[in-house]
Design brief:
The protein has about 250 residues and is of the alpha/beta class. The chain has a single domain, classed as Alpha-Beta Barrel (TIM Barrel). About 45% of the residues lie in helices and about 20% in strands. The chain is built from 11 helices and 9 strands. The protein has an 8-stranded mixed β-barrel with strand order 1-2-4-5-6-7-8-9, surrounded by 5 helices. α3 (about 65-80) packs parallel to α5. The longest helix has 16 residues, at about 65-80. The protein is globular. The termini are far apart. The structure holds guanosine-5'-monophosphate (2 copies), manganese (II) ion (MN) and sodium ion. Sodium ion (NA) binds near residues 152, 173, 175 and 208. It comes from Komagataeibacter nataicola. This is Diguanylate cyclase.
């Protein structure tokens, strides 16, 4: 409860901050997008990573305010980047259920002046656990605003592939657990299969968690379109990501 109250105060008091991790096009090696990753700058505990408070925020309902803060801050930051660089924002399934969610997105776009086409909304396949028409409807309406919908952490959640027919994603991100096992044969086979599935649907593929040059080479050979990982760039504060973009956009 104490942490919950502190988090509420942190959201209101601007104690949250965003880091940004670059996504590089393949094989060109340009930064084509950055993913916003929230951090909590706690007065006593220092920088708290999101896996220690996003779950809490989902349980106590603060995720709506937190998510709105993230969307606004991310769009504002990206509005200052070259226009070919997009911003990816993680959105929890609980946020999608908020009847105000679409107007929150529209508000963040309007305030920042960011073109909707530059916003990528990352969701995990867990939103399809209940095959709900409401979820699909929200995603469709987000698409109508002009945002891209990206399937994050692909391969780790709900295992039915049927939802890929019921909703068309603009991009699929292969979960880093597969990438990190490269070049082991099992992982390579799964990645090859995911890429071929995505290609058959004309959906670009991103691989996350790329840490070694060897992994990069394999992913390039397999036809991956975009890469993200510590090899290419860590999540970094806004001043640093601006420098990275200037030298790689
Ligand atoms: O930033 P880090 O590398 O520690 O991220 C850990 C996890 O927290 C990831 O699964 C990421 O998707 C999630 N995460 C980071 N930022 C946000 C955010 O703004 N909103 C939501 N819902 N999840 C986030
Ligand atoms: O779940 P999501 O894909 O949103 O997660 C983003 C998370 O992945 C962040 O916590 C980020 O710090 C982490 N991440 C990004 N690149 C790498 C990497 O190369 N290796 C590892 N271990 N984690 C990474
Ligand atoms: Mn993500
Ligand atoms: Na992911």
């Amino acid at each position: 409860a104490r942490l919950g109250n502190e988090l509420r105060a942190a959201i209101a008091g601007n104690a949250l901050t965003l880091h940004f991790q670059p996504l590089y096009s393949m094989p060109g090696n340009r930064i084509s997008a950055c993913e916003a990753l929230v951090r909590w700058h706690h007065p006593e505990r220092g920088m708290i990573p999101p896996d220690q408070f996003v779950g809490l925020a989902e349980e106590n309902g603060l995720i709506h305010d937190l998510g709105e803060w993230v969307l606004r801050a991310a769009c504002l930051e990206a509005a200052g980047w070259p226009e070919q660089v997009r911003i990816a924002v993680n959105v929890s399934p609980i946020q999608l259920r908020n009847p105000r969610f679409l107007s929150i997105v529209e508000g963040a776009l309007a305030c920042s002046g960011l073109a909707p086409a530059r916003l990528e909304v990352e969701i995990t396949e867990n939103i399809f656990v209940q095959n709900s028409a409401t979820n699909r409807d929200i995603l469709h309406r987000l698409g109508q605003i002009g945002c891209s919908i990206v399937l994050d952490d692909f391969g780790t959640g709900y295992s039915s592939l049927g939802y890929l027919r019921s909703f068309r994603f603009q991009k699929i991100k292969i979960d880093r657990s597969f990438v990190q096992e490269l070049p082991e044969r099992g992982a390579a086979g799964i990645i090859r299969a995911i890429i071929s599935l995505a290609q058959s649907m004309d959906i670009p593929i991103t691989a996350e968690g790329v840490e070694t040059h060897d992994q990069w080479t394999h992913l390039n050979a397999l036809g991956c379109n975009q890469v993200q990982g510590f090899l290419l760039g860590r999540p970094q504060p806004s001043e640093m990501i601006r420098q990275s973009i200037l030298s790689h956009a």
